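Z., the sequence and structure:
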Amino acid sequence: MTVHRVVVLGGGSAGLLAALALKRKLPQLSVRVVRSPDLGIIGVGEGTTLPFPKFLFQYLGLSKQAFYAETGATWKLGLRFLWGVRPVFYFPFADEPVRRLDGLPRPPGFYAGDELAILGPVSALMHAGKAFPRRLDTWPQFQTDYALHIENARLVAWLEKSVREAGVEFVEGTVLQADSAEHNGERIVTALTLRSGEQLEADLFVDASGFRAELIGRLFEEPYVRYDRTLFCDRAIIGGWTRTDEPILAYTTCETMEAGWCWQIEHETFINRGYVYSSPFLCDDAAREEFLRANPKVNPEKTRVIRFPSGRRARMWVGNVVAIGNSGGFVEPLEATALGNICLLCSELVETLAQTQCAPTPGMIGIWNRNANEQWDDVRDFLAVHYAFNTRLNNEFWRTCRSEVDLAGAAPIVDLYRENGPIHGHDWVTFRRNCAFGIGSYLALLVGQRVPYDRPALIIDAEQARWAQWQAHFASEAQRGCDVRECLAAIRHPAWNWT
């Protein structure tokens, strides 16, 4: 079947990103978004990963000036972990544990002592409360390896405007039923019938209906592969408060809690907090009490509980239905992978259609499904390392995590680390090349949590002195950097030029 018409079911961030990518990269397609007036958006603060800004600004070529002006996004260099035995460690979006530094025979991961803070220039910026280096002319030097903090409601509003400008049609209505038929031996959707009686026909349907999974789940009943052997958390309490004099930090904080963890996402005018927890270990009322004790500025009347299943569909492209977003898969936001995964799947959908002249073959659909599954499984594997080695608390939940979390695909990576320590990434010959998280990411977690290894390096005094010099250099350079408020002021200045 050749795709000429696309209907996207769902007007949240997943549906809008899919519609925007399809229309901007394949403008010959007719693309319509069906949005129900009965459904709102989750509306939480969101962190992103590196693929998100690259997708918007490099792949789709959207305006940075308009994006920042209308979304109020701020920058995210990585994560700050209150996790494991160290007081704190950083997970920067840079391969600092495995980079080579002049005068040191081993990568920085070997020199991380009890008080780990700075492993390179990005973690130094984070530790100093800065966002980017300062140029000689005092303007911030924006680098390429950054992600974003963004309020979901403002993101959706900007995406909707961008989607309309791209020529996508919006249809307001509630879907009552999906009509299907057999085509070449498989079931396909032929039309969506709205409550108004209007029928929307298409060649390709994007199911971005969130956890409802109207097409991929309810209609096609595609099996759900659960991640509950690895990820035990299944609920989140969300809250926050209006920012007063708190500094705007260029990282997401992840803090260990009794039965899970708490995030802090930094927005210019609001601080978003959420507690992800495991309901078998902690009831909703007890979780809410713990959350409010840890965050006294949160208004109890404005908190809410969200339940979620961790896992993915066995296939996310079935017949002529492609699941994007929560309809296809979901994991807790410990590494803020949701929007990044959406962007990756959207770009791969676009490229699959482009390479097949919009007539995707079963083989190409199979490749897309395999890549989609691996992307989700890679996230599960990486999150497993967070839970299996966090020794900060010694209670029932965390003991269970340390003894029972299935490392799944992360097991050979952990085994190799335990044998060799944080060696250079190119020496890890068994590592999967297309993994969503590179070896530097794994080492940041393993070193940060002080996971022991069998062959500790004998570090001579000269190496330790040279390492101390590097740390002092990184710290000194970081102190010269620009904080988030300075960066916001810069991009809003009339003289600022994004090119």
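The mean pLDDT is 93. The domain at 5-42+152-226+316-378 is CATH 3.50.50.60 (FAD/NAD(P)-binding domain).

Let me know what you think.
H.
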